[in-house]
Structures are given as C-alpha cells and as structure tokens.
Amino acid sequence: MKRTSAQTEDLGQQVVELVEKRAEKFTPVELTALLSRSFGLEKRSAGDLIRSLVTSGHLAYADRHGRTVIDISFNRAVQISPRLVLVPATVPFTPEPGISAVRLLHGASFGDGHHPTTRMCLRGVDFLLNQTRLHFGQGRVLDIGTGSGVLAIAALKLGMNAGTGLDIDPCAISEARENARINALEDRLEVSETPLENLSSRSFDLIIANLRLPTLNHLYEQILRLAAHNCALLLSGIHGDEVSHLLNAYTRQDFSPVWQKEEKDWAALAVLRSISHPAGVSKERPVLI
Q1: What is the pLDDT of residues 51-103, one digit of tens each?
Q2: Is the Cβ–Cβ distance between 154 and 207 less than 8 Å?
Q3: Which of 50, 163, 263, 272 has the largest CB neighbor count within 10 A?
Q4: Torsion of CA 112, 33, 284, 209, to 10 degrees
C-alpha cells in the first residue's frame, strides 16, 4: 500500500526516535530487519527509507569500533532543549525569537551533541538559566573539561556574562576557542589549559563538569573552593547508580538537588547552594529542524 507523504514523514520520525533512544547503535542490517518486522516493510523499502533519512540529514552512518552503525545526524540544526539549537558552523540557520543557536565546527573534541551526557547538560543549562529567581544574568560560568566548548557557549548564549573553559587536550583548546569565535563570544569565553588547582580564587556562579565519577571525586574540593555562595553545579558523565554518591557529597555542603535526568544509562544532575527548588523531571527529546 502506497503511503501518503504525511504517513512517510511520520514513519521517518518514528525511525529517528528508535535510533535516538537505543543505547547500542543499530547496524544498517539490524535496522533494516527491525523496520521489516515492526512496520511490515519489505527489506528493500526499509533500506530505501533508511537511505532517505541519511540523505535528508536526519540520520548518519558512523564508525563505532570498526563497525558501521546508524546514529542521529548533527549535520543539520537540532533543537536540544526549549531554548537551544545546535547548528553546524557551515549550515545557514536563523533561529526564531527566544531560541539561541550554538554553532559548532565539525571537530574531534568531545561535545558535538551525539553523546547523551552532552545533550543532558545542555538541557540542564537551559533549565538553570530559565529560572529567573537564580539571577545568573551577570554571573560567571566555569566549564571543567570543556571539549568543544559547547556547554560554556550555551551558558553564555542563555545569559551568563562571562566564562572560563578548561581542558588539558590541545586539540580541544583549539576547537573550543574557534567555536567561541564563530559564536562571537571570544571576548567573553576564556579557554585555557590552566589546571583547576591553579585557577585563581575568584568564584563562579555556575560550574559545569561532564566527567566520569573518579574525576569528579578527585576535583570535589576544588569545585567547592571555586563555587560562589549561590552557585549551581551541573554534573554529568556518570551512570544512574552513581547519582546518589554525588548527591550525598554535595548535600553535606548545603547544596540542594534541583534537577535530574537520565538517558541511556547515563545521568546528569544539578544542585544549588542556599536556594531550595523542587527537582524537575522532563522528557525532552531532540527535535529535528
């Protein structure tokens, strides 16, 4: 039976959501077989649908440990949160009022939106900076392990006044500086390889650390040293069963949990010092523009 264009579009969106939700990426053969079983498509039709979604920029072929798999494509504008859209640097895009576009070069550094922790952190930044009672308008953001610089750039786009991004990888330093430049934020975002312990004693209003738990544990005292009185911490790079460990550590230091998300066995959380706010649970998914 021939599908209408609306039915084909709806089926394509369902396929994109299947790919986005799956922790272990499909190979083309696996996805073709699934579409054949789940939607009654002939294998040839399933293969044609997959190829059309790749051609249109919704999906992309990727290499994972020597295997070709299918992943969400970030070669076009992708809305990550209510107020944030990730856009490749070379793609023309004009955001609607109230939407901030974060432009990124295609590089080797971590933080292009493919990984769940990056997406969750972006949503966490949007959540925190959308709470008018937090008064971050003139604040400073610190992004530890900045990678592409995407999280610090997003925080500045959404209202932070200035920021510092730290990384030990020279490639990340170069890419983050270039991404700051193409977002016209080079004068507001300092990207540095300065070790965290050597950072001056100035305090930060928002500290972001998308790192694994052992590293977060190692940096615990330094994060507390640099946190302003009403600082918010946005932490990720952890698994769901590790959340309680971080919450226990920071609630002992007068931080209260305000936000938490989990995606594909990964988790992100935000805690806020001195200001209580009920934790939120949202179910946002990337929306393809």
Answers
A1: 988 888 788 887 777 888 888 777 788 889 999 999 998 888 898 999 999 99
A2: no
A3: 163
A4: -40
Which phi and psi angles does 133 have, rounded to 5°?
-70, -10
In terms of average pLDDT, the best of 4-13, 133-142, 161-170 is: 161-170
Amino acid at 21: K
DSSP string for residues in 141-197: EEEET-TTSHHHHHHHHTT-SEEEEE-S-HHHHHHHHHHHHHTT-TTTEEEE---GG
Pairing type for strands 204-210 and 227-239 reads parallel
* End-to-end CA separation in angstroms for the chain: 29
Placement of tokens 């272990």 in the chain: 24
What does the pLDDT look like over 178-196, one tens digit per residue?
Answer: 999 999 999 999 999 999 9
Half-sphere exposure of 72 (CA within 13 A, CB side): 29
Q: Is the C-alpha dihedral spanning 117, 240, 285, 275 positive or negative?
A: negative
Alpha-carbon dihedral sign for residues 210, 216, 218, 224? positive
Nearest to 226 by CA among 251, 248, 255, 196: 196
Check residue 280 and report its DSSP letter: B
Which SS3 state, helix, strand or coil, does residue 233 take?
Answer: strand
pLDDT, tens digit (0-9, with 9 covering 90-100), for 33-63:
988 898 888 888 889 899 988 888 788 887 7
